Sequence to fold (164 residues):
Amino acid sequence: MTLTIRLADKMVDRAGIWRILEPVIRAGETYPLPRDMTDKAALTYWLSSLHTSFVCEDDDGTITGTYYIRPNNSGGGAHIANCGYMVAADAEGKGIATAMCAHSLKTAREMGFAGMQFNFVIASNTRAVALWTRMGFETIGRLPGVFRSPTRGEVDALVMFQRL
Fold:
């Protein structure tokens, strides 16, 4: 399978992106977004003018993943990138998150960012933690019990960082 990562078309790609976002948001296990978030609110957030959003497509043009990149903060913190990633449930385990992370690191360097920080990685999302670690991120902080999982209760969140 060949993967293509390209800039999201904010009008054309909405349905494909929502197909990925909705089950993740509804599950409430890996993202701190309201579980009852509407498609309009979720897409407004994901495709915000403050984000540069991408989609990952498979050979037949199906959107299998999406991510955004943005400055982690404004002003004195704008030189550090932040990203959010989601993969379609039916495409998990096919290297899509790895490809998107590699693409985001390259893109961040090209955009002039000096580092990338993930502010709120849910510790129970062990696949993501393992992937980010393999991709060179270090856990630099643990926030105890700051995420309320609908199935696990209070869960820690990690702050992960990589200097670019």
